[in-house]
Design brief:
This protein is of the alpha/beta class and about 250 residues long. The protein is built from 9 helices and 10 strands. It is globular, with a radius of gyration of 18 Å. The chain binds S-adenosylmethionine.
Amino acid sequence: MPDSSLAISAAQPELARQAAELAAELGLPLMAQRPGAQAVLTLSAERLALVATGPDAPGPIAVDFAAGSLRHRRRGGHNEPLGRAVGIHKWPGLSVVDATAGLGRDSFVLADLGCQLTLLEREPVVFALLRDGLRRGRLSEDAWVAQVCQRMSLLRADARDWLAGQTVDVVYLDPMFPARRKSARVKKEMWLFQQLLENADSSAGLLEAALSAAQKRVVVKRPAKAPALEGEQPAFQLPGKTVRFDVYLPEGDR
Ligand SMILES: C[S@@+](CC[C@H](N)C(=O)[O-])C[C@H]1O[C@@H](n2cnc3c(N)ncnc32)[C@H](O)[C@@H]1O
């Protein structure tokens, strides 16, 4: 989404100052300066949400770790392959850098399995939505949600820069767009990522940076039938119906 189509606004007048601070932090205009914005990052007392304005626009997008959609993934659920891919059975409690954090769901699943997560997100709007979701998650009345969110820490960074010179256990990469399924949630996220990332060359160099930093594994989420990321063959794959996990090992273990 070109910067000119995005703006920030406060849902209540008493939040105007906070909205102005957020606009300055993210380098985005306030609604008053950009009245024709196609999407508005709206700050209310409850949450931060991205609200699209066009006729075919999807509903508001916000990060909510207490939502039902994450509940069925509790303790692995159908996502156990993600836990196996990072090696949770071999190294319980290991540290994982989610270098393409997005809306944080995969990170939440890994944190629920006991991993310590560092989330990296470079897109300001996605970062702001995720930071707000994590803040609310840590304060959740649901002790499970609060505990899982305590194991997640978020940084605004381009992973390629952040990973240079770092030593970490596991790097997790999910540079892909959400699969083309019909659920309203997937449609909203497709819309968000496609708008935000339309000009971004998001995956070039990521795998190389991840491989240079990871001591145990690099795990890449791919559409089930897609070629390996950057044509680099993994040590092994964990296939699933719609996605698979490609696992790369550090040089000495290959
Ligand atoms: C498909 S989404 C990830 C979805 C995530 N796995 C989830 O469960 O919500 C990819 C995200 O990676 C971010 N991204 C892409 N390249 C990046 C980079 N080099 N550094 C940091 N973030 C990056 C994008 O901004 C986008 O938000």
